[in-house]
Amino acid sequence: MFFRNQFANVVEWEEFRDDMIFWKWSNKEIKKGSKLIIRPGQDAIFLHSGRIEGIFKDEGSYDIESEIIPFLSTLKGFKFGFNSGMRAEVLFVNTKEFTVKWGTRNAINLPHSQLPGGLPIRANGTFNFKVNNYIDLIDKIAGVKSSYHVEDVKLRITSVLDQYLMKWISREGKDMFNLQANASDISKGIKEDLDMNIIEDGMTITRFNVRSFNYPEEIQQRITKSASHSMIGDLGKYQQVEMVDGMASGKVQGGGTASDMTGMMMGMNVANEMMKNMNQHQQPSQQPQQINQQQAQPQQTSSNDQPQAGATEKPNFCPNCGTKAAGGNFCTNCGFKLV
Asked: Does residue 71 sit in the same domain as residue 114?
């Protein structure tokens, strides 16, 4: 008995890795007394002469002679001899869903009327896939390869991803400067195209996601500034924001004349805005009172009520932009009325 079983072996996935899609146990003779071990997340497929003999999915340890061979399609009557073994291959398949990060290899130049060379963008995200058809997998890939890795699928996907991004971004006139708003529709279209690309190899794309679109730095700055203009919607407030940004970024250093001037301008602008807001809120409530006072007291004119010449002094600096006043009634820089 010892001599008959001395070459008995264990059929298992010896090189299991999380990034392996399948691994083939081959070029070994299965002897009498050999065991098959299936671990969680694995399927074992017995192959003979390139044909599927049986698929085993339940995890556990099995005696090949008594628990496996009786279920093989053409080898169910195989009998082990004294020195003979069964020549067969066992393909172990990872059944989990794989998650892969992707990014565009090169910038994609999207046609744009205002940019002769196109709008260059990059994108990144994730996609998920899994094996779903063993016959196609064996026929197209496993028949000629002993193992297959996630990186192999990633290379295949990224080789065609740029053209699919171009197709779905350009479709239906999407806003080139706000692609993130259309990320869901773009992702859905790309998923369908990628799935058609690899489904013939026994795999399927279960999910595809565009995480972000990236523009060149100068384009992104213009987009950000345009967005902030539309959010502010008021030139005075925009000037305040620009001054605050300048001080925060260090472009306007503290302690110098420029910083003092900036602080004075910002203070004047804020004060003006506060006075405008107060007048707007107070005007409706004061109007009835003024009318009643006019009705109760007859209007009298007196020489004392007339404005006196020289009573209003012109400011030294423009309250709106901070430019030094030149003595006129209007600011020479922004046209603000000084008196």
From this structure: no
